[in-house]
Amino acid sequence: MARIVIIGAGISGLAAAARLATIGHQVTVCEASGTYGGMLGRYQRDGFAFDTGPTLLTLPAVYRDLALKTGREPLEQLVELAPVDPESRHLFADGTALSLPNASRGGVAQALDAALGAGTGERWGAVMNRGRAVWEATRRPLLEEPLPADPGALGTDPYPAPPRRGLARLRPGGSAPTLDQVAARELGGHPALTALLTEYALRFGFDPRTAPAGATVIPYMEQTFGVWSVRGGLRALAEAVYRRCEQRGVEFRFDTRIEQDPPDADLVLRPAPAEAALPGRVSVLLALRGARPPGTAHRTVVHAADRAAELAAVFGSEPGRSEPGLPDRPTVQVLRPDDPSGRPDEEHEAVTLTVTVPSQARLDWTVPGVAGRFADRLLAHVDAAGLGLGERVRWRVVRTPADTEREALAPGGAVPRPALAGAGGAFLQPANTTGRAGHYLLGGAAHPGGGLARAGMSACVVAGLIGPA
């Protein structure tokens, strides 16, 4: 039995603690703040409740495995899960509306044809088929196994070259090394399909002008395996894993900042240092008067009025150059869960707007008035798309990367990105082993990267490296 100290009670630290305690180790979790969950926070006021971090669950199999391996119970006995259907509703700049079904690639193709014209579903489906090839090539080395000692092979993008037809066969080259080139070459530059592909990348902090084509694995995974909501928000998932840790005898020390290696530990697990300059998120929590309209989608995406201007504002006017600013009418996720635990009664609604923005390290969100004016613009933007939220606002709270930095101890308030193959390894995360005996890295800034599912995978990989007592 090893004495293991885990630094940080975020979801990856909790998951690792539960796994390691279950296989016989003595585990202590030290958390600098006064609570657990990390980015899985919850804001409550006047009977309203909002997630302050991730809001939806993809790849629930990761937490189903955790529940079974640490307690022989299905995840559904720990939290109440429900598939989100439609998976998302999209409102494009030209006024076109599109609803995508959950976990149905055939249904997605039909919806695209109906909303955007015949043939668009086939185009999108062909790209998703190549995303499937990326999934099959990288699932184990990027999600389920430790990063190879020599990760050189993962520097090559596994996205397969599409078939070349007509005069294209006479031109040199044929691969699509970036997402933007996928959109131009394989989606025909179709504005709505390009915006759809961009949204998946932007949500995870990737610049589609530089992200490898293999990032198509992100929409492939969502559209294939589905998206799920948790009653009580994703904070309920953190609570369930915390309770499992307590059942397995994990000791917690809150308000405990660890600056040096604990002297009483055989093994130490800590979060990898995040890259502060990565994009962050602004969330606007809206307490609304009036009932949630029947048939309202859980997630509506209002797309940017000017895609190029949005990318220039968030990432810089040219790929690789940092000239951050705030986009005028950006891509906004509007989250409207049908969850009674999030509202005081049926005559009110809790809504969250989220948008990808420069991090606190690149744009000072603490300057008075910046966050409020930006929230005003976001509300005007979504209302111009027909949502009619502004006139119903009882109160609102604006949360910026500065809040994430302070509460989740995330440098710059940046949101860690999933690891991707390609681009010479530029989008890989540090390995879970450190080169120091008994020291491991986990969490969103370590292999296999950011996102709720990958945080759980990080814990699984580290537990596998340590092994049973």
From TrEMBL:
The Amine oxidase domain extends over 11-259
A GO molecular-function term, please? oxidoreductase activity
Q: Where is the signal peptide?
A: 1-17
Q: Show the ranges annotated as biased composition (Basic and acidic residues).
A: 336-348
UniProt key word Signal:
yes
InterPro entries cross-referenced by the UniProt entry: Amino_oxidase, FAD/NAD-bd_sf
The membrane spanning regions, by residue number, are none
For this protein, the record's Pfam families field holds: Amino_oxidase
Annotated region described as Disordered, given as residue ranges: 317-348
The UniProt keyword set, sorted, is:
Signal
Name of the featured protein: Phytoene dehydrogenase-like protein
